[in-house]
Specification:
The chain is mostly helical. The protein is built from 3 helices and 2 strands. Strands 1-2 form a two-stranded antiparallel sheet.
């Protein structure tokens, strides 16, 4: 990465998941890829601490869950995190003037 600026908010952590996924693809941390070759290095990135999360799945309004599912399907991803700002997660976003941030 010499001379390249890191543009991520938080650089990726080199953890077992990263090492296992590289190995699964036939690579290791010591490999140098051919020029213009790109590979994924993680399947899932979740680098926040457990105490930074709050589970609200039992109270989220069904319309918000459906909207999140639709977004994931449209993006063709299996896992999606969606940031929502609302005054009441138990009501539809339209009723609370809530918004989806991503």
């Amino acid at each position: 990465m010499s001379g390249n600026k890191i543009i991520a908010l938080h650089p990726l952590t080199i953890d077992l998941e990263l090492k296992f996924f590289l190995n699964f693809q036939g690579y290791s941390l010591n490999d140098v890829l051919p020029e213009n070759t790109h590979i994924p290095v993680k399947r899932v990135v979740n680098q926040n601490a457990c105490d930074e999360n709050e589970s609200v799945k039992t109270i989220v309004h069904p319309s918000i869950i459906e909207m999140g599912s639709l977004v994931a399907r449209l993006l063709n991803v299996q896992l999606a995190g969606i940031d929502i700002i609302t005054t009441n997660i138990t009501k539809p976003l339209a009723e609370t003037n809530g918004i989806i941030m991503n």
